[in-house]
Write a structure and sequence with these properties.
alpha+beta, single chain, STM4215-like, 2 helices
Length: 131
């Protein structure tokens, strides 16, 4: 299982929704996880490496009415709290050497049209390779 797949399965613990990999659908009520193109690697004299990968979790949701936008914001605020709580509890994705999962950027609207908006939140995963 890839790191992306492990992160997707873990995110389903917040709310069991179908989450696509890399591509956000144009249909409302769809979710996706895309890996960002930057990977940070710290190398240690022991040969161990600490890897930080960043992901963008997106959701295209109905947003015509203010009540829908308020509900969408509440859903994402809940997701952010859930990620932090899971990290504090040690309930992390199934990734070898995993050390941390966290929110790197709070949710925001990335795109909007007359009926839907794409909400986004940045996530990071930190894991070690080697000793």
């Amino acid at each position: 299982m890839t790191i992306s797949q492990s992160l997707i399965e873990w995110l389903k613990g917040y709310q069991p929704v179908e989450i696509a990999t890399e591509t956000q659908s144009n249909n409302p009520m769809t979710y996706a996880l895309a890996k960002e193109p930057i990977v940070n690697i710290k190398r240690y004299l022991s040969g161990r490496r600490e890897v930080t990968e960043n992901y963008l979790f997106t959701a295209r949701l109905d947003s015509q009415m203010n009540t829908e936008r308020i509900d969408n914001g509440a859903w994402f605020e809940g997701l952010e709290r859930w990620v932090e709580e899971q990290y504090n509890l040690g309930n992390l994705p199934s990734v070898e050497g995993i050390r941390k999962v966290g929110v790197t950027s709070s949710f925001y609207v990335g795109m909007a049209d007359s009926a839907t908006a794409v909400y986004q939140v940045g996530l990071e995963i930190i894991y070690t390779i080697g000793d």
